[in-house]
Structures are given as structure tokens and as C-alpha cells.
User: Which sequence fits this backbone?
């Protein structure tokens, strides 16, 4: 397991070199680094804003910058950026988090168009109310029961739902530049 600051370009360079040395060329990248500090607009400090953007968004740029040349050389690659329902709406964490995840969607669309001719697909997954991940994993059972009220289906999501979306994106060479909303129909509520 590698440890380091994914929001620091120097640290990412070191991590990339370690991965490359141990595993060889990288042809799949999942940009999933993220922090969640729940704050209202009035509570966010400059440091909260900068750290959230740096870790949640800049990390995806840094990692992609390292693997894209290799993927181009291979003529194959899959990049999946983990966003959030907060990228398309208010969310519950705060504007700093929503902005970082909305930035992921812009990065996804731009790089998908740019890299398609090289056999590289770039997509995003925007989960919501995943009971065993993110801030919800630390909620009590009683708190998690309220998640089902926020979706159109009869249950909250789980990590397996997100994994199935990832598997689909990994296998398809014709799907690129999309965001799969894994949210149980939360947009309709």
C-alpha cells in the first residue's frame, strides 16, 4: 500500500514511479482520492477550500498527467473519476466539496474528448447515499436508515453498486465522457 499526499504533485510522482516499477505500465486509473469536511458556506476557511480542491480535484489531474502518456503509447486506457451527486446539486457536505466534484466532471469530459482517438476512455461515477462509504460509513444504523428516504428505491446504496458501475466502464470501449449516477434515483426525489 502506498501512502502519500495525492494533492501534492511531487508525492504523486513518487507514488507513480513506485507503481510503475512494481506493476509495469498503468492502463487503468481510478481517481478516488478525496476528503470530506462538512461545512456550510459561512464556516469554510480558505484552508478548507484549498485543501478540498487540492486533494479532491488536483490529485486527479496529477495522476492523469503521469499515466496518460503511457496509455497513449499502449493504445489503451481506462480512467474513471469518482465524483458525487454533489457535483450536480447542492449535496450535504458543503460548497467546497460540491465544487471539487463538479470540477471532476469537467476534467472527465475534456480528457474524454482529447484521449478518445488513442483508445483511452474517461468517465465518471457520481455516487450518492452509499451507506458503507464516505461520511455515511460512520453514521449509526439509525442515521443510515434515513438514507432510504432520500432515494426512489427501497434501500440506500452500497459499495457493490459503485463497483458494478466501475466494471461496466472498464469493459466498454464505446462509452466515454459520461457520468454514471449511482444514486438510487435521488435526482427524482
Assistant:
Amino acid at each position: 500500500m502506498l501512502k502519500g499526499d495525492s494533492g501534492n504533485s511531487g508525492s504523486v510522482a513518487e507514488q507513480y514511479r513506485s507503481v510503475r516499477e512494481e506493476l509495469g505500465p498503468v492502463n487503468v486509473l481510478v481517481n478516488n482520492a478525496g476528503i470530506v469536511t462538512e461545512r456550510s458556506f459561512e464556516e469554510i476557511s480558505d484552508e478548507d477550500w484549498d485543501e478540498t480542491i487540492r486533494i479532491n480535484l488536483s490529485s486527479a489531474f496529477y495522476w492523469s498527467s503521469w499515466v496518460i502518456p503511457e496509455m497513449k503509447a499502449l493504445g489503451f486506457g481506462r480512467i474513471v473519476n469518482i465524483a458525487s451527486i454533489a457535483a450536480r446539486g447542492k449535496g450535504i457536505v458543503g460548497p467546497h466539496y460540491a465544487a471539487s466534484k463538479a470540477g471532476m466532471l469537467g476534467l472527465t469530459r475534456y480528457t474524454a474528448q482529447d484521449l478518445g482517438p488513442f483508445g483511452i476512455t474517461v468517465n465518471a461515477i457520481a455516487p450518492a447515499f452509499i451507506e458503507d462509504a464516505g461520511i455515511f460509513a460512520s453514521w449509526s444504523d439509525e442515521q443510515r436508515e434515513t438514507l432510504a428516504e432520500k432515494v426512489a428505491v427501497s434501500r440506500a446504496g452500497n459499495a457493490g453498486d459503485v463497483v458494478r458501475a466501475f466494471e461496466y466502464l472498464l469493459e466498454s470501449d464505446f462509452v466515454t465522457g459520461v457520468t454514471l449516477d449511482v444514486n438510487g434515483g435521488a435526482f427524482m426525489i
In short: The helical segments are 9-23, 46-74, 95-115, 141-145, 159-171. The CA atoms of residues 65 and 71 lie 11 Å apart.
